């Protein structure tokens, strides 16, 4: 690995949008660290990426386990000494599609936040010292229009017509809050933090009901993961530009 080659960590990168983000970053001659909870699935993803001549390294990472997060950070520190790009992609939706808020279980809400919010928060905190060593650190939080309070409260919005998904939507709203406050803290540093919506992508999470492919959905996250120095920070963006909070 050359000293000038960027290092990117993508959480939940063994499949779906995360895998495609890793593939597209690797296609830009960036070393991709494939964060995966399941080693077997992660190894399968690594082999696919390497078959395309991408420099890919498997990092076992369970974003709900602090020991796992700390071990991943220690490995990156020892192997590379820095991190240039962090993409918080790992997310879940636990058995709540079409469940009215009053019927949603506290357990499902807690499980969703454990991965989508607390996991992202813990990973950012653990990786931040490594990102500070980068000349141009980038943090991309994979969000969704479903986390926009403006859109959800607009009765004419197509998203407002979706079945209720309180836990998932609220977790993305909270993730956007992380973006705002970490960006505020990091003002004056080379690190940029943005929330990005990939759009309605066909994934396991939505039963492959989305109309975009993973390849299409990965384009915007990759763009914001590789922003130039004059790019924005502390914003919420999609394929068509800025999204209302």
From TrEMBL:
Keywords: NADP, Oxidoreductase. The keyword Oxidoreductase applies. It holds the Pfam family adh_short. The keyword S-adenosyl-L-methionine does not apply. Belongs to the short-chain dehydrogenases/reductases (SDR) family. It comes from the Bacteria. This is NAD(P)-dependent dehydrogenase (Short-subunit alcohol dehydrogenase family). GO terms for molecular function: oxidoreductase activity, acting on the CH-OH group of donors, NAD or NADP as acceptor. It comes from Thermosporothrix hazakensis.
